[in-house]
Amino acid sequence: MILHYFKWAFIVTAVGLVLGAWLGWQSSGTLAGVGAAFFICAVLAVLEISLSFDNAIVNANKLKDMTPVWQHRFLTWGIVIAVFGMRIVFPLLIVVIAAGIGPIEAIKLAATRPEEYARIMNEAHLPIAAFGGTFLMMVGLTYFFDQEKDVHWIQWLESKMARFATIKGIEVAFVLALILGFSRLLPAEETDTFVYASIYGLLTFLCVEVVGGLLDASEETMSAAAKGGLGAFLYLEVLDASFSFDGVIGAFALTQNLFIIAIGLGIGAMYVRSMTVMLVEKGTLAEYRYLEHGAFYAILILSVVMYFQTLIHIPEVITGLGGAALIGISLWSSIRYNKREQAAA
């Protein structure tokens, strides 16, 4: 039963919404404040789910090759890191670095001067978008630039990308060219920040790939069943962090209360985890052959949107709906393919 997979998500939703309503009462002392906090938590949860549905598919793709032990570790430790680390510690860390203050002072700033906290977060949007956009772009391109990939959704495009994958480093060259191109569109005072943050995003992806490969290779020498262990876990955690950037920054457009943001995005993260578990256990990726393609196209679009957000404001709801639409089309294409195969059998 599908609802079984969302049991904990439902529990966290109930607890989170009650806690959000309580925060609304504490901050305003009115029923209107309670309703506003309750509503914002719900909207943030929906925003997080819409932005991260493709994250669930990519997680499931990686998890299906991991041992049960590491699957369990990612789905337990990973959710703690995702909710506590990315939705609470990450925004605090940005303020600590940007404002040059200590962690305790950052928490006090979030609690007593939320407007100043939000201002610092928004000012940090440029390097965050550049870093996260670059990392996600490498994730998407690496999937398509794969000479062993033999299932293509958009045949004319993906077959060419698979063929060009024999050229070593082609995806890195493509991303570097795009970084240089976008840097020319930015004001001169922002160019260095964008380029440095983008390069760090690229280096992070390459380091995660190298370290992940070394870790998993060393584990395989100890145990043949250790495929997809610590290295894959590390990769998924960094990937989840990159997906979180857009939601965390966008949340400040709805509220400046860090704790309400953490509750709303945390609720959404629980649903993403539940979807990931369902996709792995039900074998949905194998059943719908183009679903994975849609998720990686959504990742590429998200990465480009994050680049454009350094130039203009793009509402997060558009990003979320765009990704959901692509995944929906890929699901529809998969169902059509399955029907054709059944008719031909």
TrEMBL record:
Alphabetical list of InterPro entries matching this protein: DUF475 (IPR007427)
Domain of life: Bacteria
Pfam families, per database record: DUF475
Record key words, sorted: Membrane, Transmembrane, Transmembrane helix
Residues that span the membrane, as ranges: 5-25, 31-53, 74-104, 124-145, 165-182, 194-215, 249-273, 294-312, 318-335
PANTHER family cross-referenced by the UniProt entry: MEMBRANE BOUND PREDICTED REDOX MODULATOR, SLL1022 PROTEIN
Stated name of the protein: DUF475 domain-containing protein
